[in-house]
Amino acid sequence: MKRKLDDTDWSSKDAAAKSARTNFSSFSLDPRLMQAIAKLDYHTPTSVQTSVIPPALEGKDVLARAKTGSGKTAAYLLPILQHILISKESNAPATAATTGLILVPTRELADQVHKVIEGYTEFCGKQIRAVNIARNISDSIQQSLILDHPDIIISTPSRAAIHFNTETLDLSPLKYLVIDEADLILSYGHENDMQVIAGALPKGVQTFLMSATLTDDVEQLKDLFCRHAFVYKPDQKEEQGEGGSVSQFYISTGEDTKFLLLYVIFKLKLIKGKSIIFVADVDRCYRLRLFLEQFGIKACVLNSELPVNSRLHIVEEFNKNVYEIIIATDENEIMGEEDDDENADADEVEGNDDKDNDQPKNKKKKRKSKESKLRKRDTEYGVSRGVDFQNVTCVLNFDLPITSKSYMHRIGRTARAGKSGMALSFYVPKELYGKHRPTSVASAENDEKVLERIKRQQGKMGNELKPYNFDMKQVEAFKYRMDDALRAVTKVAVQNARMKELKQELLASEKLKRHFEENPEDLKHLRHDREIKVVRVQAHMKRVPEYLLGKGQAANMVQGSGKAVPFKVGGRRVNRGKTKGKGKGRTVGKKKDPLKSFGKSKR
């Protein structure tokens, strides 16, 4: 595909010579955009915005690498919105046409970008219209939205390619193309879709490639869409100064001890604030939620089996502080290649240390292929990248990711917008793997090698993972309660939990509303069907007896390395015996289940 040939080559070194900009007014943006920026309480542009917006306003292609939460979305949206406003004012009534296309890898990110556009165009009236066709709506509704010729379309590559192939989406008037989270686009299986879109683009399209890392996939997209692009690569000082720091810790633990430590951490409130817990698969997601519910700890699940509208609702409720814990799966982990010095470890993981016997190697390859297939429940689902979880205090890797790159993107959910955060990772040593089958997960077999790769990767970035130890003598006192809870959370209980959630989704589904109106008996049977029993919660498990706290010295349970102690212990005790009568003493606030509240809203 031919592109502009008169561009000049740019680099981040040229950007270093730019004049200092301390506020958004220096960009000479439209007053309506400035009014929106003021309402959003944005004062000082971030480093990526300061570097990218000026060349973007000049019409140059942009390739920018910046970590999550650094303001990449505004860096490409503000120039595009500015150009559209100028174009509409300079050209009197013109034929409506879609001039901007924003491609993102996941539906969650598409919804987020659409909301950001709505925020920036709040004072533009009907001058700028944007639609999100990645939403879970029918093809006919999507076609009508596209044929209405909005100024900007937000989509995943697969949806855009489908509408282009059916001649609904016309790319000939396109002027601006954005590929957000570019390093994920190809790893999510959109290579063919991108080839289709690239072949249909007209000459002179201004392209924005935004990415947290510059991988081979990004270079491939750069060759396909850009010519002499302005390249922004922040140095280490800029990155560290842009956002808050992430304190990173890891804990060596057995498979069942993971559950014990998690119980102690959250029941004794050793972590203050909101947390995201990453697990290996959907079954484990529900198992962990049911386990925590045994102790009165409310958590919500987020995985690819949930409808996209439900997932978006869960993220929205989390950001509104309705609940504090999300248990998330990361099925669409980044499966790309590791750094060169990590490939050797990857080969060992695959069984190359046994060169004389090919059978174990083949078995492991088959297992890896099987795991890869299991991850493809929803190729447009992703929570470790792009989704804006607000005010996350801790990212807890209950199960380690399978690559160091996935780890980097997971911990990017915390320490956003200049705030500090913590990442805590459990790993299972080789000698402890498979010792407790009920709580075992296949990916834990390679935890040691993955952890070493993570340490090397973070070391190159100037970060350090520190070991963290619990005083296991005190923690062991809680073990009998963990055993009781694990016995209650059976495979049948996990299956019932998934069935119950599916039933709730059917009852709340807007798509099935017409079917239930035409077939009221179906709705009657569904509502009066036998209640699905999940797990019986024992009341006494919700409180912590005084004797288990070791004279109230819960803080002694954790022993950090050096002075950096990541956990803060709540000051209140549970039921000291000073109150009498049923229902007295400390009351535990009930958290609303976002999936149940979702039934009141349209999907």
From TrEMBL:
<comment type="similarity">
    <text>Belongs to the DEAD box helicase family. DDX56/DBP9 subfamily.</text>
</comment>
<dbReference type="GO" id="GO:0005634">
    <property type="term" value="C:nucleus"/>
</dbReference>
<feature type="compositionally biased region" description="Acidic residues">
    <location>
        <begin position="336"/>
        <end position="351"/>
    </location>
</feature>
<feature type="region of interest" description="Disordered">
    <location>
        <begin position="567"/>
        <end position="603"/>
    </location>
</feature>
<dbReference type="InterPro" id="IPR014014">
    <property type="entry name" value="RNA_helicase_DEAD_Q_motif"/>
</dbReference>
<dbReference type="GO" id="GO:0005524">
    <property type="term" value="F:ATP binding"/>
</dbReference>
<keyword id="KW-0067">ATP-binding</keyword>
<feature type="compositionally biased region" description="Basic residues">
    <location>
        <begin position="570"/>
        <end position="589"/>
    </location>
</feature>
<feature type="domain" description="Helicase C-terminal">
    <location>
        <begin position="245"/>
        <end position="473"/>
    </location>
</feature>
<dbReference type="GO" id="GO:0010467">
    <property type="term" value="P:gene expression"/>
</dbReference>
<keyword id="KW-0539">Nucleus</keyword>
<dbReference type="InterPro" id="IPR001650">
    <property type="entry name" value="Helicase_C-like"/>
</dbReference>
<protein>
    <recommendedName>
        <fullName>RNA helicase</fullName>
        <ecNumber>3.6.4.13</ecNumber>
    </recommendedName>
</protein>
<dbReference type="GO" id="GO:0016787">
    <property type="term" value="F:hydrolase activity"/>
</dbReference>
<comment type="function">
    <text>ATP-binding RNA helicase involved in the biogenesis of 60S ribosomal subunits and is required for the normal formation of 25S and 5.8S rRNAs.</text>
</comment>
<dbReference type="GO" id="GO:0003724">
    <property type="term" value="F:RNA helicase activity"/>
</dbReference>
<dbReference type="InterPro" id="IPR011545">
    <property type="entry name" value="DEAD/DEAH_box_helicase_dom"/>
</dbReference>
<keyword id="KW-0175">Coiled coil</keyword>
<dbReference type="GO" id="GO:0003723">
    <property type="term" value="F:RNA binding"/>
</dbReference>
<feature type="compositionally biased region" description="Basic and acidic residues">
    <location>
        <begin position="352"/>
        <end position="361"/>
    </location>
</feature>
<feature type="region of interest" description="Disordered">
    <location>
        <begin position="336"/>
        <end position="377"/>
    </location>
</feature>
<feature type="domain" description="DEAD-box RNA helicase Q">
    <location>
        <begin position="22"/>
        <end position="50"/>
    </location>
</feature>
<dbReference type="Pfam" id="PF00270">
    <property type="entry name" value="DEAD"/>
</dbReference>
<dbReference type="GO" id="GO:0005829">
    <property type="term" value="C:cytosol"/>
</dbReference>
<dbReference type="InterPro" id="IPR050079">
    <property type="entry name" value="DEAD_box_RNA_helicase"/>
</dbReference>
<keyword id="KW-0694">RNA-binding</keyword>
<keyword id="KW-0378">Hydrolase</keyword>
<feature type="coiled-coil region">
    <location>
        <begin position="492"/>
        <end position="519"/>
    </location>
</feature>
<dbReference type="GO" id="GO:0042254">
    <property type="term" value="P:ribosome biogenesis"/>
</dbReference>
<dbReference type="Pfam" id="PF00271">
    <property type="entry name" value="Helicase_C"/>
</dbReference>
<keyword id="KW-0547">Nucleotide-binding</keyword>
<feature type="compositionally biased region" description="Basic residues">
    <location>
        <begin position="362"/>
        <end position="376"/>
    </location>
</feature>
<dbReference type="InterPro" id="IPR014001">
    <property type="entry name" value="Helicase_ATP-bd"/>
</dbReference>
<keyword id="KW-0347">Helicase</keyword>
<keyword id="KW-0690">Ribosome biogenesis</keyword>
<feature type="domain" description="Helicase ATP-binding">
    <location>
        <begin position="53"/>
        <end position="232"/>
    </location>
</feature>
<dbReference type="InterPro" id="IPR027417">
    <property type="entry name" value="P-loop_NTPase"/>
</dbReference>
<feature type="short sequence motif" description="Q motif">
    <location>
        <begin position="22"/>
        <end position="50"/>
    </location>
</feature>
